[in-house]
Amino acid sequence: MTRARARAGADRLRAGDGPILRLTLLLLLLTAAAQSPLTALLPGAAWTNVLDDLAALAAFACAAPRLLRAPLAIVAGAAVWTVVLAFAATRSTLPPGETLVVARQVLVPVLLVLVGTSLRPEEWHAVRRATIVVGVGNACYALLELAGVHLLDPTALSTFNADRMVLRDGLPAYYSYWFGPGSPLGALGTDHVVRTGGTLLNPPVAGLVAAAALVFAWHERELRGRRVVLVLVSLSTATALARGGFVVAAAALGLSALAARVGRVGTVIAAVPLIWFAATQLADDGDSASHSDGLAYGVRRAFETGVGEGFGHAGNLAKASGLAEASESLAGIAFAAAGLPALVLVAWLLLRCALAATGPGACWEHGLAVGVVVASAFSESAGALNGAAPLWLGVGVALASLPSASQTADAGDLWGPRRTARATRTASTTSVTA
């Protein structure tokens, strides 16, 4: 009887949560997009940095009743991730405020993944459309930057290392993308280029926003003005010169499509030359070594300690505080802090999504998930809610459509066998139009 009442209560909550969840998701994307401009316009206003966090928590609260019937493996994995990283926070060498910032980087994405697993097709469609709008706005601002116009001051976003910020032509040093010795990009006749930071005022984060908008616009066949949108977001993706954005766009647009034509083995064979080129010819561009070093440090410390060593040993914040050298890898932060449990969970997620993206019945969200996970290994910006929120929601959508998620749903239902089959998200669910 107790279980029946719980099911009935959950059904009632789910019946009325649709409009509210959609509203909180749109609020999340709006507050995330507005965070950087508000911070630049209102320096010192701390409340501008928590609006999107509050919206993310509200979205999770709205989606929570649906998670009662989520596949058990996904919920259990999220629970383990949360526990081991919360334990890492208790061993942090950073001050409490900075510990909270780093914990937010690695914990909020898992909340968004869980929300993503619960999204209905029309809700996921609304997220994609809103992201495209944000991406177009970001692209228009990038055009102004290319013309030498900077309406907002990106230096206002530096909180922890403002006194040590290096400026070049009035912009933070991370706006400059430096070419390594012998780089093919050296043919441009200069040793560096100035990247566009868009409305996010940060090129790596702007690259994620632009890539998300590009991927979503590409798959929105009925989008009004689609060709113009694709040109704009493609340009902003390119001019941001963000490795995370490139990885996400390439994986989401090409992985499943390529596998459908040449199969899983053919996809691996085709990917090897690209990986070789990136590792050998572009390895020194844009200080790429710091990104790979951050990941390598996290993996090494995970194996050496087993349970990690807490926050404060990897990441940009720890580096700015003088406590660490390894940085630029979101996954590296988690591995160093929480050890092998975090490493195993990320490896499992990447493997499952990669197999799904290159297998029969793959949808582009599987490729998107692969791109996001790989980007988190080489970019700390993947933990920035103002840039990566829709991407982590997409990872959740991909997990919900894994073959094992739908085939073993009855066994994994937190409340026992389902009375109604959950609609599996395939490529057809993403063709819903407004």
Concise overview:
It is built from 17 helices and 4 strands. It is an all-alpha fold and 434 residues long.
Key traits:
single chain; disordered C terminus; 434 residues; two-stranded antiparallel ribbon; mainly alpha; 17 helices
Describe this structure in words.
- This protein has 434 residues and is mostly helical.
- The chain has one domain.
- It is built from 17 helices and four strands.
- The strands form two sheets. It has a two-stranded antiparallel ribbon. It has a two-stranded antiparallel ribbon with strand order 3-4.
- It is globular and about 50 Å long.
Strand content: under 5%
Class computed from helices, strands and strand pairing? mainly alpha
Q: Give a count of the beta strands, DSSP E runs of length 2 or more.
A: 4
Share of helical residues:
55-70%
- Shape verdict: globular
What's the order of the H and E elements?
HHHHHHEEEEHHHHHHHHHHH
Radius of gyration: 21 Å
Oligomeric state of the chains?
single chain
Average predicted local confidence, pLDDT: 82
Low-confidence stretches: 12-16, 406-434
Total separate domains: 1
- The end-to-end span amounts to 42 Å
Number of helices: 17
Question: Major sheet, described briefly?
Answer: 2 strands, antiparallel
